[in-house]
Give the backbone structure.
Amino acid sequence: MKWGLQKTMWLEIVCSVKCKSLKEILLPHSVVKIGNASFEDCDKLINIKLFDNITAIGEWCFAGCSLLQEMNLPNSIKIIGEGTFERCMSLEYINLPNGIIRLYRSLFF
């Protein structure tokens, strides 16, 4: 299952059923912020494509995405919320761009 949006500036969505079948996220260029817990516990999620206009990722956004192995953050990212990658047990690689101005505690734990 793929999930995407056409025109939105701020993604504030919570997968209330824990998105058990969501495997891939492709957000449009118009999204600039991903809200808190938007994809928390999407435990089948393996691929996320973020474009260069996203500036903030909310708290616990990808927490519990246990199959996520790699995260390529765009250079536009300025803020990464607390616990964003908590319980991402398969995460082996993440790039943190130089322009980050706020990186909250317990990003991974």
Remarks:
- Strands lie at 2-3, 10-11, 24-26, 33-34, 47-49, 56-57, 70-72, 79-80, 93-95, 102-103.
- The mean pLDDT is 83.
- The CA atoms of residues 29 and 51 lie 6 Å apart.
- The chain is about 0% helix and 20% strand.
